[in-house]
Design a protein that fits this description.
homodimer, about 180 residues, 9 helices, DNA-binding
DNA sequence: GTATCGAACTTGTCAATGGCAAGATAGGAT
DNA sequence: ATCCTATCTTGCCATTGACAAGTTCGATAC
């Protein structure tokens, strides 16, 4: 064991998990550092030691979120539909992470860990989807953007509750016929 | 004149404009009621009289935002491309409003004025785009959702700075070839 | 085994904030 | 001239983010 069992055990991890939980409950803004400290059972200033300030906590959440996101996208394989559905599945299953990573004003986007994980995700989204529009010239680089846009838009609209209720309660199933409009012809 | 020129003149309006300005500068969360009061040159508790609390201010912003949004969409006519481009144009030109209305956890979505304006916008987005997929059955109601998703996704990604810089600095021009993937065949 | 070191955490403090209560002001109705 | 009511102010309190200074305790050296 390295420094795993200190005063608290693993406070850094506990704070991140408390933050993710709080964000899941009421969004990326409706929590306080002191609340995270209370959830972790430590003093009100303990989080500052590990993260500095609020943005520090959110930077850690963004770094972890982008890593999980990149993993999920890479694991989806080469099929564009599958990547798109994985995108939406991640947004729904890991909502707090998804909500944070696309709001860079909340954290420090220049953080090395964040930037690296984001680059991984970007690669899948802007390059990894060759064959997006098989009947179009391969150098049409707007096709990946179109695919990214439609799945991102669906996911974000779904999470915000803007979509009509008739779509049911399974976002991935609901998204399938929607994103099919883009590529299956 | 009704109650237009009271102590302040039109504090309600001034507070809303101050809020929109503050949101434009640093997002829907990075401002305080007291800052709005200072901007309007009134005491720290004046906003509470008109709006109750923070959510009250944001509810007023959402109501005004949804109204402007519905106006913009309705004014775009029947052509689907034009509606889509108007959507993106609104998101960019009225960013603070756009950022608020799709974050219902920030305000009171049940507010009558908000609900009415939102219904107007929803009508254009989920019904008003007949002919979306001319070669598909008219009862395919996922087509409007696809159109909504792609323009919403593009707009949101653009605003969050997630899209590659090579797309240039004119979001409407950049969006044109992207959303063309969906309908022009 | 004990002295030292440094990271992990606590305690104390301050200005700023949201929200509430009570008071002051002034325009409009009678 | 008087009352009435919406508008706005003053005063207050619990909470918060951030910082400074102090304390605990595991690890390392000898």
């Amino acid at each position: 064991m390295s420094g795993d069992t200190y005063h608290h055990g693993n406070l850094r991890r506990a704070i991140i998990e408390a933050a993710v939980g709080a964000i899941a409950e009421s969004g990326p803004a409706a929590w306080s550092l002191r609340e995270l400290a209370r959830r972790a059972g430590v003093s009100h200033a303990a989080p500052a030691h590990h993260f500095g300030d609020r943005a520090g906590v959110l930077t850690a959440v963004a770094a972890e979120g982008y890593t999980l996101f990149a993993n999920a996208l890479e694991a989806a394989g080469d099929d564009l539909h599958e990547v798109g559905l994985a995108y939406i599945r991640f947004a729904v299953d890991h909502r707090p992470y998804f909500e944070v990573i696309f709001r860079p004003e909340l954290y420090r986007p220049d953080d090395p860990e964040v930037a690296a994980a984001r680059a991984r995700a970007d690669r899948v989204l802007t390059e990894g989807v060759r064959g997006a529009a098989p009947d179009r010239p391969n150098d049409d680089r707007t096709a990946p953007i179109a695919a990214w846009s439609i799945v991102h838009g669906f996911a974000h609209l779904w999470l915000s509750g803007a979509l009509p209720a008739r779509l049911g309660d399974d976002p991935v199933a609901a998204a399938r016929p929607v994103i099919r409009h883009l590529f299956d012809r």
